[in-house]
Amino acid sequence: MEMIELAHRYIVVEGPIGVGKTHLVKRLAESFSGTTLVEQPEENPFLEKFYHYPKQSALPTQLSFLMQRVKLSKELQQDDLFNDLKVADFMVEKDRLFAQITLDDDELALYNMVYDNLTFHHRVPDLVVYLQAPLSVLKARVSKRSVGYEQRIEDAYLQRLTDSYADFFHYYDDAPLLIVNAEQIDLVNSEADYQNLLAQIATLQSGRQYYNPLPAAEKKK
Q: Residue 217 — very low, low, confident or very high, per pLDDT cuts 50/70/90?
């Protein structure tokens, strides 16, 4: 297998719940002896309450996630990116996507004041990998990983989130962007699928690129 080299030192993998971003982050870090910056939703004391009582728990849930993401981002800024690859499963801007679909107007106004004060300076990635998949695929993957509170996610909420991601990245131009249709590829069990995606990640240096792969097993037919 040909060795792939990466020029990027800070990569963000993004996408809606269940699309597979955290697994890809860990694989990339393993492949290049890098360091992961991974969200810890289980450390949010309000998250399970949110899935039971979304209206009452939305604001503390979102503020807790915001604090966690800002803390991780500050740790990133203190590190020397020239000596170590960093791969994250979030970007700070994503926090606002969730807030916009879960908070009412007054809560969102308060959230925005906090957000603007905490995020005025953060590091821009060298590359963003945005994983897309339709609702049916996201639901199947969420169900398969069997996280108890996630099984309460409503279809309408997951679809709104998916649409919000699509709209956000339609206009995103702060960093090189690879948009990946992850519907049919299996980055967990197929080494060929992973290596094919890795080649795409390594070649993108600027602008945006769309990657719409077939599963490696189907290519052999």
A: low
- Asked if residue 28 belongs to a domain, the reply is yes
The CA angle 68-71-75, to the nearest 5 degrees, is 140
Look at residue 192 and tell me if it is in a domain. Answer: no
Q: In this structure, are strands 127-132 and 35-37 parallel, antiparallel, or unpaired?
A: unpaired
The vertex-132 CA angle with 164 and 89, nearest 5°, equals 85
Q: What is the mean pLDDT of residues 174-191?
A: 92
| pLDDT at site 8 | 85
The strand pairing partners of 130, in sequence order, are 14, 179
Read off the pLDDT of each residue in 30-40 and give the average, rounded to a whole number. Answer: 90
Alpha helices in 17-123 (DSSP H): 21-31, 47-52, 54-78, 94-102, 105-118
Q: With CA atoms as reference, report the closest residue to 58 among 77, 37, 43, 44.
A: 44
Q: Residue 189: inside a domain, yes or no?
A: no
Q: Which CATH number fits the domain that encloses residue 79?
A: 3.40.50.300
Over residues 11-31, the pLDDT tens digits come to 999 999 999 999 999 999 998
In a domain, 211, yes or no: no
Q: How many domains does the chain have?
A: 1
Task: Residue 219: name the closest of 187, 189, 184 by CA.
Answer: 184
Please give the residue range of the domain that contains residue 77: 10-171
Question: Residue range 83-93: average pLDDT?
Answer: 88
